[in-house]
Write a structure and sequence with these properties.
25% strand, single chain, alpha+beta, 11 helices, nine-stranded mixed β-sheet, five-stranded parallel β-sheet
Length: 417
């Protein structure tokens, strides 16, 4: 089977790894970007690290990035700080305001500068046996755009035409196939915008802001992130509903009211981070889902199928998990062609089921005013919250990202009166 994947990271490269290492499929990846390039999305969960190990990426090469042992929040109906760390022992130490000289043995992910991180990954993938075409997609050539006709070919910017048995759209929010078929449906509530910048020579401040953690703080109509992406640069951003029309001046005013300000007030704002050409960057975080996850000879994967607000930090994890699922589907389609339509429906049904739960978590998180009974009614199970906070189930073990004690802690804090 010949497979063409549009977009290489994270969903495309994860799927590619499984296809080339566990099948005899002929797999090509098409990528429009020239790396390294600027990209927001700098917080990686432990399950992402495990998947990189599965792909034989040396984790030692991430040693230049700060480890992430979890997140600290100031969010909910109260004004207290609360943490959700990956290790229960470390979490309890934080709750007691105790500190340790060495926490490196505890479970962790990484906070990364995406341009450098992506370049590390690309180097390792290019050294292996994959086919990578750095050539943007110019056109998706359907036999008939108005029905479920198959893709005939993909025309690249170089005017080269690519044909395949199966096309996988892992192009992220650009969602080439979904755009061509006009399948995107935007969420009426989660239409948010991010303004963010980078600050060099920041300080840790008090015990709250340390390089080993991610910090999230909410105000009445915005929320902020604080993510150290290197040992001297921190990413700081403000998320707000797009109807607010906030500008960088609003960012500068509102940040003064946060606990983040003390760590960056004497820092130098970085003017450029790779091709970023201004002090502030803007990103439209408009959540959407496509009407369909598959067609005659194509699938949507990762952010190309659905994109949810980044408050749950689950995009990379979720994309990797669904890449694993799609690999299994493609394998079964190859060995059981008579079951192709059923397998496609299973892929879409499971995807939609997880999306629905994930979105409910985002709605509850943003509401800040729901009673506990509302929570249970919306989610069906109060323990489901953190199961989806980082992209659903663990990528390898297929268990909850966090344990029950972490579920309970988030549940109790976000709705605490």
């Amino acid at each position: 089977m010949k497979v063409v994947i549009i977009g290489w990271w994270p969903a495309g490269s994860t799927l590619w790894n499984y296809l080339v290492s566990k099948t005899d499929f002929d797999v090509t990846i098409i990528e429009k970007e020239i790396f390294p390039r600027h990209h927001v999305g700098e917080s990686l969960q432990p399950d992402v690290i495990r998947s990189l190990e599965e792909m034989e990426i040396p984790i030692s090469e991430l040693s230049g990035f700060p480890k992430k042992y979890g997140a600290i929040y100031k969010w909910g109906l109260h004004n207290d700080r609360w943490s959700v760390l990956y290790s229960k022992e470390l979490d309890e130490l934080y709750d007691r305001n105790e500190t340790l000289d060495d926490i490196s043995h505890y479970e962790h992910g990484f906070n990364v500068e995406r341009a450098k991180f992506d370049a590390i990954l690309l180097k390792h993938f290019q050294a292996r046996w994959w086919k990578l075409l750095v050539d943007p997609v110019q056109n998706i050539d359907f036999t008939d755009i108005n029905d479920d006709a198959p893709i005939q070919s993909i025309t690249l910017q170089s005017w080269k035409q690519i044909q395949a048995d199966i096309f996988i759209d892992a192009s992220g929010q650009k969602s080439c196939i979904s755009e061509a078929k006009k399948l995107k449906v935007f969420d009426s509530i989660l239409k948010n915008t991010a303004i963010y910048g980078y600050y060099k020579w920041y300080t840790d401040g008090d015990v709250l802001l340390k390089k080993d953690f991610q910090y999230i703080e909410s105000q009445w109509d915005v929320w902020f992130w604080w993510i150290p992406i290197s040992y001297d640069i921190v990413s700081v951003g403000m998320i707000f509903n797009s109807t607010k029309k906030f500008t960088s001046k609003d960012f500068e005013t509102r940040i003064l009211q946060t606990e983040i300000w003390d760590s960056i007030k004497n820092a130098v704002q970085v003017d450029t981070l790779w091709e970023s050409t201004s002090q502030y960057n803007y990103a439209a975080d408009w959540s959407f889902i496509s009407k369909k996850a598959y067609g005659k000879n194509w699938f949507l994967l990762g952010d190309a199928y659905w994109f949810v607000d980044p408050i749950l930090s689950g995009g990379v994890s979720f994309s990797m998990e669904k890449s694993l699922h799609l690999w299994k589907i493609l394998q079964m389609m190859d060995s059981q062609p008579q079951s192709e339509e059923t397998l496609k429906k299973v892929y879409e049904m499971k995807y939609k089921e997880d999306i629905t739960k994930y979105l409910k978590m985002a709605y509850v998180w943003y509401s800040k005013t729901h009673a506990k009974q509302d929570w249970i009614e919306m989610t069906g199970d109060k323990r489901k919250f953190v199961e989806y906070i980082s992209g659903g189930q663990r990528f390898l073990e297929q268990n909850s990202i966090f344990q029950d004690w972490q579920n309970e802690k988030i549940y109790n804090n976000i709705l605490k009166t």
